[in-house]
Amino acid sequence: MQVHAFDKKELISAINALRGKNYTCPECLSAVRVRGGACKSHHFFHLKSNRLCRQSQKGVIHLKLQQRIQSFFEDAEMEMAFPSIGRIADVACPFSKIIYEIQYSPMSAEEAKSRIEDYAKLDYTVIWILHDHTYNKLRKTPLEQFLRPFPHYYANVNEKGEGHIYDQPDRKLPPSFVNLKERHPLRQFHFPQELENRARTWPFHHKGDQLDQALSGSLPQQRESFLATLKKFYLGLLHISLERNSR
């Protein structure tokens, strides 16, 4: 669901656009018009179908996630255009130099690599939000495998905007809810093996993700290891006590 288009050189929201007037898609530069009303949100549609245009492929869930992320930050802007690299960010935060890219449909690793490199030219870091309609299945997609060294999370938000952004680097582990509003630089720490690669390559972590849980000692596997060590310690004490009593 496309909600922004150019009126000459000015980016305009669909809710402020005039019916019957031609506007320009900021991505493919094709003609678009606005539609919508009481039953459906105002949005732009292409006069001629263009399957290659990413703007025309965005659905309601994509929009709801964009709005959710935008609501977290004062400087966040949806559909921010970067003409010098020919990109339009789903949500951009110019002050913190962060781009949030939402991916609902399949995408190639090559395209993700291209976006990361393009935004890096402008000193922006990309955080990926992958919707679990397509991602976080039993077998990781090439895109997910490529994104392991880069900040990325999952989402299960529905068309009503209900759901969560969550972290789950391994499906054997339970998901953990992520608070994107709280971001912290990573510090030196002996992380569990499944998080070591992430800790070496991610520039920061967010409140509630599994790096954050590891730092606070609240990962499920950390608790299990602690309990196992505690059990071994008390069994050792019991064994010593029994030996002494049998003498």
Task: Describe, in plain words, how this protein is organized in 3D.
With 247 residues, this protein is an alpha+beta fold. It has two domains: 55 residues, no CATH class; 128 residues, 3-Layer(aba) Sandwich (Trna Endonuclease, Chain: A, domain 1). 30% of the residues lie in helices and 26% in strands. The strands form four sheets. A seven-stranded mixed sheet has the order 6-7-8-9-10-11-12, with helices on both faces. Helix 4 links the parallel strand 9 and strand 10. It is elongated and about 95 Å long. 31% of the residues are buried.
Q: How helical, in percent, are the residues?
A: 25-40%
Structure annotation, total helices = 7
The strand count comes to 14
Question: What is the overall pLDDT average?
Answer: 85
How far is the first residue's CA from the last residue's CA? Answer: 80 Å
CATH class of the largest domain: Alpha Beta
Could you say which structural class the secondary elements and strand pairing correspond to?
Answer: alpha+beta
The strand line-up of the biggest sheet is 6-7-8-9-10-11-12
Shape: elongated
CATH overall fold name of the largest domain = Trna Endonuclease, Chain: A, domain 1
Reported for the largest beta sheet, the result is:
7 strands, mixed
Poorly predicted sequence stretches spanning 5 or more consecutive residues: 224-231
